[in-house]
Every structure is written in C-alpha cells, then in structure tokens.
Model the fold of this input.
Amino acid sequence: MQSYSGWENLLLGLLVLAMLFWMGPGIKATMAKSRATKSDWPAVIVPVGFVIMFVIFLIAMV
Done:
C-alpha cells in the first residue's frame, strides 16, 4: 500500500478541519438538546431483553 505524499496529507488534514468547523455548531446544539431531554432507558432495555430471550430460546432449541 502506498503512503500519501506531503501535499496529500496536508489536503486531508485541511479537509478534516473544515468538516469539524462545519459540523461543530450542529454537534454542539445536539449535545445541549440531549442534555435537556428526559432519558428513556426502558426504550432500550425492553428490546435488548427480548433479543437476549430469543437467543436463549434458539440455543435451548438445539
């Protein structure tokens, strides 16, 4: 595999920085909004519990 030349590394670095500056305000607003909302753990735990029970059922059927 070929390594990148110096100007390609510089261009990739500038592209990454531009993406961070472009997406930064949106990420910051999303993080602030997520802190203000009520967490809803049952919405995660119930489906995961069903998946675990289904896997145990499949293992028991073998």
